[in-house]
Design a protein that fits this description.
Distance between the termini: 67 Å
Largest sheet: 7 strands, antiparallel
Order of helices and strands: HHEHEEEEEEEHEEE
Strand content: 35-45%
Shape: globular
Length: 189
């Protein structure tokens, strides 16, 4: 059977196109190095005692598209809560950036960023933080209703899930749903 030579070329062209799509998917997404740092809202807490003290530590992992976001909230002198979220970054079809949160069912201790693998983490795709990315500014917000429906299964820890953020320079503004109220946290690196 004599097949035209273009029969053999087309699969190679198709494979090249598929590979290019995967590369483009992650290029331009918010990477761990641009977001990493320890952000503290101590300056915000001083004048407004109603705002809890929050420290968010963002660490890059060995997995290029992943960061760990450790959220520590102190509601008073004796009460604190901790939760770490794995965030997968990707570039969306429209050129915007997205961070997809993942959680562990039973998180007994803070995960180690150096030994992180996505195995055992569950996706909260409906809570994806989507938004524009620029040289000095990265932002994202999740869509309310789909995120609320999906995150109900996370339980009380969902109060520590970032539902919006803007990182500009040394500042990180994060929105959390603390006690059922959207609370803006203004933290500095």
């Amino acid at each position: 059977m004599n097949l035209p030579t273009t029969f053999f070329v087309r699969p190679a062209v198709l494979l090249t196109g598929i590979c290019a799509c995967f590369v483009a998917r992650s290029e331009g997404a918010a990477d761990g190095k641009s977001l990493s740092g320890r952000y503290d809202n101590a300056e915000q807490v001083k004048p407004d005692g109603a705002v809890p003290h929050v420290v968010i530590t963002i660490e890059p992992t060995a997995e290029r598209e992943w960061t760990l976001w450790s959220v520590h909230v102190e509601t008073d002198a004796t009460t604190s809560y901790d939760q770490t979220w794995a965030m997968q970054s990707r570039k969306e079809y429209d050129g915007s950036s997205a961070l997809i949160p993942y959680y562990q069912l039973k998180q007994d201790s803070r995960p180690d960023a150096a030994r992180f693998t996505p195995d055992g983490w569950l996706s909260l795709e409906a809570c994806a933080l989507r938004g524009p990315i620029a040289k000095d500014r990265v932002e994202g917000v999740s869509e309310g209703e789909p995120c609320v429906a999906v995150s109900m299964g996370v339980g009380a820890r969902r109060a520590l899930l970032p539902v919006g953020f803007v990182r500009e320079g040394d500042r990180l503004h994060v929105d959390l749903n603390l006690r059922g109220v959207r609370t803006g946290i203004d933290a500095k690196r």
